[in-house]
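chain below, 176 aa
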Amino acid sequence: MSPMHRRTTFTLTALAFLWLGVVLPVGNAVGQQAGSTFKDQLVGTWLLVAAYTERQDGSQADTFGPSPRGILMFDGNGGLSLQEMRSDLPKFASNNRQEGTPEENKAIVQGSICYFGTYTLDEAVKALTMHLEGCSFPNWTGTDLKRSITLTGDELTWSGVGSSGRPFHNVWKRAK
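prediction:
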């Protein structure tokens, strides 16, 4: 896919999510209806509550600090977009993102992840597979990420293996 086509796809996806957010109230998502499918329950906008990685000694480390920020959007047609970051990312002294110092750039890369693409669900085992079309960690672009998920009311929890090779867990709350 050409860079122009990727930008167009990303722009159209972003516009679709914006339209859904403006036209369809998130709190009245189809997924909240009784008897709906697991996919219907997943569709909507989610806000990051917690993100932690399991250390080798069994303890937990906050992946994006103690107060992570993030948004996750699933549309009914199988599209997704995710952004996660530390709440304390440093501002660039130059005020120009093209002129960050090595330390500033390192902090941003290690303190955030963003990706978009499509998703499929295996409702029988409550597994989510995300097919990434673009990612701020380029090694994941064009790959599939698998997550075990639990969805209870307005809380979504997923688990998987991160780029560090360690297990991680994220907790999301449905946006109101």
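The radius of gyration is 17 Å. Residues 3-23 form the longest helix (21 residues).
thats it, cya
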